[in-house]
Amino acid sequence: MKVNYLYLKIAYSLYLSHYREAMKLLIFFTHFSLLIGVTEWSEPLFQTLDKANFYSVMASGKLREINEELALIASSPIKEKQAYEGALLMRKAGLPIPPHEKLASFKTGLHKLESALANDSSNGEYHFLRLIIQEHVPKFVHYDKDRDADSQDVYRAFRTMPPAVQTAIVNYSKHSKLLHVKELNE
């Protein structure tokens, strides 16, 4: 028997009612597997900053490490983000980079650190970050007016700071003109 396909009338549509349940399952598993894949490769929701590593980067003064730490801090949701970025940017300005980048980096860092201090002036760690910068900035920048007050704030807040920050302060005080190990332990 020959079938003439030109006159065969079969309705084709995109809506296939008998495949509805299979499509629902397919869509569900597709979304589920995408969700699992995204959360598998993403960063943790509550990321904390490794303060010991931050202070070792500040002490090392290597441009590559500072840039990596800046990228890490920029992507983290920590509350101290502004102060840490400001301190690293000002530290970066003291490294061998082009002069126009030095000025821009220092000004941006100065603005970030000072605004963090304005928002939380009782934070001793912010005062320590500013003191580090103030002790090493050239005199012509005129960023040394709060050195004595910052050192007193660091002394007052030393015992309440996290152990990683205390270790960084003790290590820094060995080379500092304003912080002394003996006075920290009193």
List the helices and strands and how they pair.
Layout: H1 20-41, H2 51-60, H3 63-74, H4 81-93, H5 99-119, H6 124-136, H7 147-157, H8 163-173, H9 181-184
Head-to-tail CA distance between termini: 107 Å
Q: Which consecutive residue ranges, at least 5 long each, have pLDDT under 50?
A: 42-46
Number of domains: 1
Quote the average pLDDT.
85
Overall body shape: elongated
The radius of gyration is 29 Å
Helix proportion range:
55-70%
Largest sheet, strands/sense/barrel? none
Please state roughly what percent of the residues sit in beta strands, choosing from under 5%, 5-15%, 15-25%, 25-35%, 35-45% or over 45%: under 5%
The secondary-structure element order is HHHHHHHHH
Give the structural class: mainly alpha
- What's the helix count? 9
The total beta strand count reads 0
Note down, in words, how this protein is organized.
- With 186 residues, this protein is mostly helical.
- It has one domain.
- Helices cover 63% and strands 0% of the residues.
- The chain contains nine helices and no strands.
- The protein is elongated.
- The termini are far apart.
- About 3% of the residues have low confidence.
Question: What's a concise summary of this model?
Answer:
By secondary structure, the chain is mainly alpha-helical. It is 63% helix and 0% strand. It contains nine helices and no strands.
